[in-house]
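SEQUENCE-TO-STRUCTURE ENTRY
===========================

Subject: a protein chain together with a token-level encoding of how that chain folds.

Sequence line: the amino acid chain in single-letter code, read from start to end.

Question of interest: how does this chain fold, as expressed in backbone structure tokens?
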Amino acid sequence: MAETVGFLILNAVFEAGPIAGFTWSASTAAIVGNVAIATAAIGASYALSPDAPTSKASDGQIITRQALPTRRRYYGYVKIGGALVFSETKAGIRYQIYALNQGRLDHYLEHWLADVHVIVDGGGVVTESYSMGDNHFVTLAASLGTDDEAVVETVNAFFPDIWTVDHRLRGVAKVLLTTRQPGQEDFSKVYPGGQTPVHRSVVAASPVWDPRQPGQDRNTEAGWSFSENAVLNILDFHRDEDGMGLGSFDGIFFTDAAIAEDWIPAANICDELLSLKGGGTRMRYALGGGYDLPAPTKTTLSGMLAACDGWIYQRPDGAIGIKVGKVVAPTVTIGPDDILTYTGFRKGGAYTLTPVNKITGKYTERLLDFQEQDADPWLDQDSINRYGREELKDVQLQWVPFHPQARRLMKLAMCRARPEWSGTIVTRLSGIRAYSERYIHLVIPELMIDGTFEFTAPWSIDTASLTCTMSVASLPQEAFDFDPETEEGTPPAVPGSAGPDVIESPASVEADVEGSVIRLVWNPSGRDDTAAEAAYSVALADDWIAVDIGVSGLSATTPTLTAGTYDMRVRWVVGGLSSDWVIVDGIVVT
């Protein structure tokens, strides 16, 4: 639901005279012409269906081999394979280049060959796999994809006629994989399965502009930072030339006022830490995923917005604004003095013929190889028992990386599927003051309606009759309230089995500073049913912030940090049991 009102229509309407409670400023009127032109070009992108299909995060793990491979761009933490853009053999060594991401990656977390998480030393040598004694057969060279990268020298040196000095893949993150041929009798020992492995990486994907950081310039990508924050990535998708390409319209769509009044508050909501069942916290709205280029704008934006209950709208000043799900707090009341007629009003829930009583949804589970998983369904068991059957509604949550986040969004979907009241109202032109509002306080005394409603479809203005037509449905604050202990549900199980009550703490825990992030690593637990939890904090503080565990389960990396001293900790968990924390303190980030 991302509506825009045609500004040429609004301009004509306001020529009829002032509207109480709504200010049409001279600066707004001056910008209307430009906005109307640009809105015509992007309006179709905002005709979003909340249930529009979107690509799965695991789609990016598939290695493509095409003469003209599809480019992809990613946000958040993802596991990606990429397009094989070069593959040649010389002197018993195969050289392969995988193009991973259109644009710069922030950093690599893990490298995988086939289904093996490999350790790579400082020279790019894979040291603990695909080896025989001290003889190592595989090397990796990974680049972030900056705009000033030179040609892959090794490939150019051996294949100058095929891969010239002009084959630079500038602005494309890539990996050079070299696999050396062992003797025939040793081939299956070095390469299990009898073939050389394909490459995949777990990465912190595209850096994005964070307008909350004073040192970042919206036009200088080199200073941007990685973030899972859903709103910051949605903002980047709007502005990036490989997304919606609206960066050249910053002066119209992403003004300082829009950034300060809409995008920053929404980003702050996404960063809020919410309690988890069993302890710990997660940010309210994270996302991770990717899309093919040229961008399928409608489905991509729909999927990203679904991860944060996002709502895009066009502000009265012509800029683009955003709101995300948290609080229902309408500031505009529409009542008897405004309403001319209302139609189709009915009570929902148990009074409908076929009430929705089960919400299903798929999300992307990081601990299960970044694969799409079924979230624990959201059920109205009383309704199921009463009607003797399940009435399903499925929601698309492929950009959602955490099960608790998926469950919160599924609860919201249930509330929207079964509103107490829904219908259509026609108001006098005074209803225009609800423009740019997501929620209104609606009062219809004869129906005993007095509560919060949201718009469920684009609303229209009739310039001849000077009326506004709005479709609405009730949505109480309770839809956003969430009790993790009773509502978080049960996530898909990570393979393993129940074990003894005493769990040993992680061993050989070490921390390394990599630029502005800290990476914590530890040894396997010796059991197949444990999962790790990790967190960081400012040194000597008790405000621990959860960080994501790498796919191998043996590493965790913080987001980009400011200079200072930090502590990190990790523990094993099995069901409701956990080991003691192992803390590495006094880690200095410069």
Observations:
- The chain is about 15% helix and 30% strand.
- The two ends are 44 Å apart (CA to CA).
- The first strand starts at residue 71 and ends at 75.
- Confidence is low (pLDDT under 50) at residues 1-45, 47-53.
